[in-house]
DNA sequence: TTGAAAGCGCTAACAA
DNA sequence: TTGTTAGCGCTTTCAA
């Protein structure tokens, strides 16, 4: 695993200093953009750096500064399903982009189901990073304990279930999103509205459902047409069939994820019914699947990008010793053809 | 950015040694599983480690071993489109999972368009990693130069355009995949077959097209119905409209990505034609979009998982000083409803 | 089998 | 403004 496969030794600060005719300390100052260096010396060092192709050794620097220069995106106990989720991919990308300006590197720490998160825990405790962004919808006591004990700055994306060791979090307003969906359907004249919810032990699952409930009751409508699914396309389709069987008069459904919503649309069509003519459908996430679907899917926007930039922002603040308060982001409804006759596709 | 926010100093090897009543060297040997340590001493050290909650400091270790304990997944000059691509997300996940057993950490290094890849280059040169997996369909001279000069073990995912500094690569057989698609359509009795290709300055774009061409000619069919798109859904739909305008007798299309293929299907349907009855469609990638589409999409499987595990395998081998030869993986056709009446969905 | 000691490359007091 | 010096926490000779 040696990096020095027969090559010349990489130039050190010592080499640079020697070549520039200054001390190592001065060379270090130039490299770290310390102001109190005579212009001439500065020039000399910069030249030497360029000529030698010098790059500071991160390990050496980390050792003395006690900063790793990286943050970890932690996904504990991750199932395959989580990863293939476009939400997760987008989040990861947005986080990385948000850090592109800084010198901070992004480390991807994914646990495997079963294995617990021993590897991640070890890494966090070993001082491998300066901070962590935890992405999970489960309780991850071990990770939380490690974060607490190491006092590592950390933020949670998505409201953690049981306190999350007091970590600040960024989340979208799932409850308001669910209400938004219901209100939209009601405003379109629908009355017999069902919902396919996510797992109730996950915050997005529970919150989207309760938002829907609140709006339904506020409008004096029944909130009995509830089916619980698991966010997978299969489960979404299956629950849609149940809903169709349960209620002949059904004229709309709010489905807690786009993926499930697309599957639901297929089932409605397979039953010989039209979307949105007979049954209107609202999804959740505004993922690619929503615009690719036919009819295109009205959905609640999941502000992934803002989620990521806010999380990064909070983490950087925390890393500078400042306070960070949890943030809940607004959601918006994206109107498309699955609830609206006037939209073409 | 200090990690030691008022907390107790993390225990060092020195502390462990003191507590166990041995020297630092012995403690180090135990931690690194060196065999020549007396069982009693071993026990004492292990106990001390447990009691103190000792974790080795990575920076200190790296400094002396000259190993970073991490590999970088490098995505230079990445546009937004690349990231949202499910292929990339799956690849990243598979790479991380493939490394879950090892102690190696995964570092995500994404460049931004325009900015070049100065940050990445700097990092690679700074000894921040022990190896790199480069994911790109462009020429990235700077990165290649950095990799060459640092002699950093590296592999390319996807055949690099212009040599890629002699990096070994893993790729799927895009050419064979294109041929597979054409042959399948021909075997289903289609004769007037068009194609919507990807950009010709990208290997997957060019190779899938040439495979299609080869199979068409081999069957004595005309290969004139070619439209070049850019892998985006919009471009796919637009090129499909052109194809429909160009050739009334069109009875099949091979589209170089699922995303474009789904858009193409929508256009065909919008023109009042049936898939697969009038026009059969084959996509490429076997992404989620393919199974979500109605009719479900026959497509060429992109073996993302094998791509990732093979790349990781090659890299680890390289890091141990062994040789690694480029690998081209086979592809398979996944039959679904867009080319086959007997498939239900 | 063990310990003493040297140093990996860097930053940061402290003095000059 | 500069240089000297002392470590950061660890691995690894080299002797014992």
Automatic annotation (TrEMBL), chains A, B:
Keyword DNA-binding: yes
InterPro entries the UniProt entry points to: HTH_LacI, LacI/GalR-like_sensor, Lambda_DNA-bd_dom_sf, Peripla_BP_I
Entry keyword annotation includes Glycoprotein: no
Signal peptide: none
Domain HTH lacI-type, residue spans: 11-65
GO molecular function: DNA-binding transcription factor activity; transcription cis-regulatory region binding
Xref: Pfam families: LacI (PF00356), Peripla_BP_3 (PF13377)
SMART domains the record matches: HTH_LACI
Keywords: DNA-binding, Transcription, Transcription regulation
Protein name, UniProt field: DNA-binding LacI/PurR family transcriptional regulator
Species per Swiss-Prot/TrEMBL record: Nesterenkonia xinjiangensis
Lineage: Bacteria, Bacillati, Actinomycetota, Actinomycetes, Micrococcales
């Amino acid at each position: 695993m040696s990096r020095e496969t027969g090559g010349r030794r990489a130039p050190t600060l010592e080499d640079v200093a020697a070549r520039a005719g200054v001390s190592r300390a001065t060379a270090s100052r130039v490299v770290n953009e310390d102001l109190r260096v005579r212009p001439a010396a500065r020039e000399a060092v910069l030249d030497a750096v360029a000529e030698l192709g010098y790059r500071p050794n991160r390990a050496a620097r980390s050792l003395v500064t006690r900063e790793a220069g990286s943050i970890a995106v932690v996904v504990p106990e991750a199932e395959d399903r989580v990863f293939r989720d476009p939400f997760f991919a987008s989040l990861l990308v947005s986080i990385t982009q948000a850090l592109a300006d800084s010198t901070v590197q992004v480390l991807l720490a994914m646990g495997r189901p079963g294995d617990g998160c021993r590897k991640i825990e070890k890494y966090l405790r070993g001082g491998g990073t300066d901070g962590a962004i935890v992405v999970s919808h489960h309780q991850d006591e071990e990770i939380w304990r490690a974060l607490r004990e190491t006092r590592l700055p950390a933020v949670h994306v998505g409201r953690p279930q049981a306190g999350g060791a007091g970590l600040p979090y960024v989340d979208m307003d799932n409850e308001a999103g669910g209400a938004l969906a219901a209100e939209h359907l009601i405003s379109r004249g629908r009355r017999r509205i069902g919902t396919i919810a996510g797992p109730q032990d996950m915050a997005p699952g529970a919150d989207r459902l309760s938002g829907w409930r609140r709006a339904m009751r506020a409008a004096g409508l029944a909130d009995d047409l509830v089916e619980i699914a698991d966010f997978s396309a299969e489960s979404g389709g299956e629950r849609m069939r149940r809903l169709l069987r349960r209620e002949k008069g059904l004229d709309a459904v709010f489905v807690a994820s786009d993926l499930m919503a697309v599957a639901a649309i297929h089932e409605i069509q397979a039953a010989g019914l039209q979307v949105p003519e007979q049954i209107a459908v609202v999804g959740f996430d505004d993922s690619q699947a929503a615009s690719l679907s036919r009819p295109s899917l009205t959905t609640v926007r999941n502000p992934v990008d803002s989620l990521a930039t806010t999380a990064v922002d909070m983490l950087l603040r925390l890393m500078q010793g400042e306070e960070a308060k949890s943030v809940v982001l607004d959601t918006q409804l994206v109107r498309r053809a699955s609830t609206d006759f006037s939209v073409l596709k």
